[in-house]
């Protein structure tokens, strides 16, 4: 079952209070650090190909997320915030593909090693292997990838995909939605493998 950021925040706050009571000063402030996603400096893009030749880049306007003090990362994607730069297409994708009335969000989750993050100096860049769980339309898939992590000022981090992550829409039972979009737009084809790239900036709490 996927955990939303709000649920995640609640569990994180409870854990922090219990940890503080039980362990007192045994943990440093850094060890109990957490980070929130900075929406102004974070982006999530996906690429579509239609008629085997026309490639377009799209994005989501609203994403939310955090890293808790155990290194658990959760990023929620508001599917209704899809932005293809064509309003009627946005509406069709929301209704015919994502079915946002019943499935308003997708979510990404992963576990990171806080020792790696806390040991980085400002300006340092590291390549970090990551296993990401993507939850979409009541289906989950594990994705093994590598990301670039850059230590920024004031304890912030920037995370970038090193190469596009290719999502197979069939694994999330979205094939009928893709076909519906193809038919309504009178297209010969729409590719069902979707490359996704991301840049996430996490600011310390």
How does this structure look, described?
The protein has a single domain, classed as Lipid/polyisoprenoid-binding, YceI-like (Lipocalin). The protein has four helices and twelve strands, in the order αββββββαβαββββαβ. The protein has an eight-stranded antiparallel barrel. Strand 9 and strand 10 form a beta hairpin. The protein is elongated.
Brief descriptors of the model:
8-stranded antiparallel barrel; 22% helix; 205 residues; alpha+beta; Lipocalin; single chain; elongated; Lipid/polyisoprenoid-bd_YceI
Which stretches of 5+ consecutive residues score pLDDT under 50? 17-31
CATH superfamily heading = Lipid/polyisoprenoid-binding, YceI-like
Work out the helicity level: 10-25%
Structural class: alpha+beta
Query: Number of folding domains?
Result: 1
Shape verdict: elongated
| Extended strand count | 12
**Which CATH class?**
Mainly Beta
The overall average pLDDT, rounded, is: 89
CATH architecture: Beta Barrel
Put simply, the count of helices is 4
CATH topology: Lipocalin
Rg, Å, rounded:
19 Å
Order of helical and strand elements: HEEEEEEHEHEEEEHE
Domain Lipid/polyisoprenoid-binding YceI-like: 34-203
Organism: Vibrio algivorus
InterPro entries: Lipid/polyisoprenoid-bd_YceI, TTHA0802/YceI-like_sf, UCP029811
Keywords: Signal
